[in-house]
Write a structure and sequence with these properties.
By secondary structure, the protein is an alpha+beta fold. The protein contains 3 helices and 7 strands, in the order H-E-E-E-E-E-E-E-H-H. Bound molecules: zinc ion (ZN).
Length: 172
């Protein structure tokens, strides 16, 4: 396993659509493990492959509270197959948009179909934080960031803050 570098906005790779995975092989399993390690180290509760510059439809998540009992989820080619009409608002953040948070409204519940690390098709229903997190990560695979749900004014403000933060990190 290896830690990978997380891309920060405005990296153009974060705005691109990713390709489906054709076969879940050792290369993909290694990618999944690297992504989980990178996500836990950050620390974060979700990570999509384009965030480490790999343009494939792969995401990992772990929304468990208890750090002693990790509940990692590895999803290849995840697809949201239904969503509830009812929505909820969560304050979202993103490892590619460090230290910035904003309220985003999304469906409360979703159904997701994906391939697991053995290439077997799985289907789950998710609500609460897991639902939000899945939708956020699947968005990444289509080049959509949570800031795309905000006004242009707010989005630009966040971008400027991140650029300032990155600059001060580099000169520190
Ligand atoms: Zn994100």
């Amino acid at each position: 396993m290896a830690l990978r570098e997380i891309l920060i906005i405005p990296d153009p790779r974060l705005k691109k659509e990713c390709d489906p995975v054709e076969e879940v092989n050792d290369e993909i399993r290694e990618l999944l493990n690297d992504m989980l390690e990178t996500m836990y180290a950050a620390p974060g509760i979700g990570l999509a492959a384009p965030q480490i510059g790999v343009m494939k439809r792969v995401i990992v998540l772990d929304v468990s509270d208890d750090k002693e009992k990790p509940e990692p989820l590895k999803m290849v080619n995840p697809e949201i197959i239904w969503e509830s009409e009812d929505t909820s608002v969560y304050q979202e953040g993103c490892l590619s948009i460090p230290e910035q948070y904003a309220d985003v409204e999304r469906p409360i519940e979703v159904g997701v179909r994906y391939l697991d690390e053995n290439g077997k098709e799985q289907e789950i229903e998710a609500d609460g934080l897991l639902s939000t997190c899945i939708q956020h990560e699947v968005d990444h695979l289509d080049g959509i960031l949570f800031t795309d749900y905000l006004s242009a004014l707010k989005r630009n403000m966040i971008l400027k803050k991140v650029q300032k933060l990155q600059k001060s990190k580099k000169s520190a």
